[in-house]
């Protein structure tokens, strides 16, 4: 074998190994989705928030993608200095469907008043999200555990 053949063979063997270790797992992609989504809410960046939600979103509260988008617009008009805190994020992936459970608190300012608008210090709101994998991207399909009806 020539040196060129050995180099090509080595690259063919090494490339999948490198991709395996550097390609993020589904769990890491889901964690990144929630991290980016919470930062987008804090920045009041509606387009980025909605890029994390599937167009097929539908939940038990009657929310759809478009209704959720309009609700978020209204929230961003009413509130400022939004801070999203979440903890105990647990993900379960099953092929193209996943669930993510977490405890959430949201602090915001409405007028001159600042305080918890979602959950509180001793008792956060426990949410469960159902996600679906579309190509290589995970998107939120459904939310359970909201403490109010829209």
SSE order and pairing:
Elements: H1 3-22, H2 26-43, H3 46-50, H4 65-78, E1 80-94, E2 97-110, E3 113-118, E4 125-134, E5 137-144
Antiparallel strand pairs: 1-2, 2-3, 2-4, 4-5
Give an account of the 3D structure.
The protein has 150 residues and is an alpha+beta fold. 38% of the residues lie in helices and 35% in strands. It has helices at 3-22, 26-43, 46-50, 65-78, and strands at 80-94, 97-110, 113-118, 125-134, 137-144. Strands 1, 2, 3, 4 and 5 form a five-stranded antiparallel sheet that branches. A hairpin with a 2-residue loop joins β1 (80-94) and β2 (97-110). The protein is elongated, with a radius of gyration of 20 Å. The model has no long low-confidence stretch (mean pLDDT 89).
**Percentage of β-strand residues:** 35-45%
What string, H for helix and E for strand, traces the elements in order? HHHHEEEEE
Multimeric state: single chain
**Radius of gyration over C-alpha positions, nearest whole angstrom:** 20 Å
- The outline comes out as elongated
Main beta sheet strand tally, sense and closure = 5 strands, antiparallel
Q: Which runs of at least 5 residues are low in confidence (pLDDT < 50)?
A: none
Task: Please tally the helical runs, counting DSSP H or I stretches of 4 or more residues.
Answer: 4
Structural classification: alpha+beta
What percent of the residues sit in helical stretches (DSSP H or I)? 25-40%
pLDDT averaged over residues: 89
Q: How many beta strands in the DSSP annotation?
A: 5
Report the span from N to C terminus.
70 Å
């Amino acid at each position: 074998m020539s040196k060129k053949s050995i180099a090509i063979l080595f690259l063919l063997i090494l490339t999948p190994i490198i991709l395996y270790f550097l390609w993020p797992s589904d769990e890491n992609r889901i964690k990144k989705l929630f991290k980016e989504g919470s930062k987008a809410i804090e920045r009041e960046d509606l387009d980025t928030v909605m890029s994390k939600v599937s167009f097929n979103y539908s939940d038990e509260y009657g929310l759809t993608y478009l209704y959720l988008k309009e609700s978020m617009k209204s929230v961003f008009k009413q509130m400022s200095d939004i801070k999203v805190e979440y903890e105990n994020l647990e993900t379960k992936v099953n092929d193209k469907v996943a669930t993510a459970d977490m405890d959430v608190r949201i602090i915001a300012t409405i007028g001159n008043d600042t305080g918890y608008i979602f959950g509180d210090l001793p008792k956060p709101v426990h949410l469960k999200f159902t996600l679906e994998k579309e190509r290589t991207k995970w998107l939120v399909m459904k939310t359970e555990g909201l403490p109010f009806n829209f």
